[in-house]
Write a structure and sequence with these properties.
CATH architecture of the largest domain: Orthogonal Bundle
Distance between the termini: 36 Å
Strand content: under 5%
Mean pLDDT: 97
Low-confidence stretches: none
Helix content: 55-70%
Oligomer: single chain
Largest sheet: none
CATH superfamily of the largest domain: MazG-like
Number of strands: 0
CATH topology of the largest domain: Helix Hairpins
Radius of gyration: 17 Å
Length: 106
């Protein structure tokens, strides 16, 4: 992950784009890229989506998420592990296994 972050920062800094990478704009870019990812599946079955395009759009989503986390100096591994722990409480196996129900309705 360190190499990925170093490459993202270098790419951004070489172009003097850090000035545009505030949390609001990074969040908006992330949302836009996520919508572009969704568009690849629109009116298709999941199997019909072009895997190479999915790869590209997913990379954009991940890159903007990483840059946003970097802006706030967040530890990606820690925040994901913490979120999994929270979800384990909200979705105990005994109630959630095999169900797509929201935790408030379990």
């Amino acid at each position: 992950m360190n190499e990925v972050m170093a490459r993202l920062r270098q790419f951004r800094d070489d172009r003097d784009w850090k000035q545009f990478h505030n949390p609001k704009d990074l969040s908006m870019a992330l949302s836009i890229e996520a919508a572009e990812l969704l568009e690849l599946f629109l009116w298709k079955s999941p199997e019909q989506a072009d895997t190479n395009k999915v790869k590209e759009e997913l990379a954009d989503v991940i890159a903007y998420a990483l840059l946003l986390a970097d802006h706030y100096d967040l530890d990606i591994e820690k925040i994901v592990i913490d979120k999994i722990a929270l979800n384990e409480q909200k979705y105990p196996v005994s109630k959630a296994k095999g169900k797509a129900t929201k935790y408030t309705e379990l």
